[in-house]
Amino acid sequence: MINAPPSDVRLLDNQDESVNTHWADWLEDVEHHINLGELPLNLQEIFADVGIPLPGEVTNVIIRVISATSGILDITASPQIEFGFDGQFITIEGMDDTRTVKLDDGNGLKLVSGSSAVLKDSDTISFHFNAEKKLWIENGRAIS
Fold first, then answer.
1. What domains are defined for the chain?
2. Can you tell me the distance from the alpha carbon of 6 to that of 81, in angstroms, rounded to the nearest whole number?
3. What is the mean pLDDT of the chain?
4. Residues 118-140: what's their mean pLDDT?
5. Distance (Å, rounded) from C-alpha 52 to C-alpha 65?
6. Helical (H) or strand (E) element with 67
7. What is the pLDDT of residues 53-100, one digit of tens each?
8. Which helix (H) or strand (E) holds 23?
9. Are 107 and 135 in contact (CB under 8 A)?
10. pTM for the full model?
11. Pair 116, 73: CB distance under 8 Å
12. Residue 75: helix, strand or coil by DSSP?
């Protein structure tokens, strides 16, 4: 048998003082701050001088990209990917074999071995954000 949650929860605030809060308010707060889950975004056309924008506070984001022009689009914006929040994870997925997006080491990115990444259809690259360094640090890539 599953019991209903209590109507009130006793928690400690940042100063270790007891505070009362309603269960639903507490649960909503926990869901919002612990992990907002993985959010796949709709396909985004990328422009060289704009770079890759991010949504609001989402812990894990999948960004599907395609060049706004034909051929390889080399992002010249600085930063190449909009800065996130400390510990945020993103995965960037290419969505076309002819309208590709190129990421280079520098301008807000730390790529493994300093090697550029050209994202074609189904290619991915993942990063986490280090707020102290203002840097997206590559975690890995799957590029054909």
1. 7-36 (no CATH), 38-142 (2.60.120)
2. 44
3. 83
4. 97
5. 8
6. strand 60-67
7. 987 777 888 999 999 999 999 999 999 999 999 999 999 999 999 999
8. helix 23-34
9. no
10. 0.73
11. no
12. coil
